[in-house]
Amino acid sequence: MKFALLLCVLSLVGCSVTKEPASAIVQKAQACGAGDLSGASSVAVQDWFSKHHDCAVAVDQMCKSVRDKAPAAWTDSTDGRVCIGARAVAQWIRKPSQDHQTFQAGWK
Question: Where are the domains of the chain?
């Protein structure tokens, strides 16, 4: 009886753990030094990206095409959490203007 119960529990535990395949987005973040992101929350990923702005911008660019076509449950996946964290940081990074236009004070 104990053996059957143990076998049942082990089979349920073995079936409940599914590992997502690593996408190019996750691989890019890991290559920047983020480590294993499969169990990280979107807040933890966002905190890491806030310390690595250049990687956040690069990952956000990769996420643009995926984000538009993603299903609703995508945000719960590792890709979704990484893209949410990258977007939250990258949207606040300002790019300097290249037009060299200046403005004068006062009325013209």
Answer: 40-94
The one-digit pLDDT tens for each residue of the chain (108 residues) are 565 554 555 555 555 456 777 799 999 999 999 999 999 998 999 999 999 999 999 999 999 999 989 999 999 999 999 999 999 999 988 777 777 777 777 776
Query: Which pTM was predicted?
Result: 0.71
User: Which contacts (CB < 8 Å, 24+ apart) does range 38-47 have?
Assistant: 38/78, 40/81, 41/81, 42/75, 42/80, 42/81, 42/84, 42/85, 43/85, 44/85, 45/81, 45/82, 45/84, 45/85, 45/86, 46/84, 46/85, 46/88, 46/89, 47/85
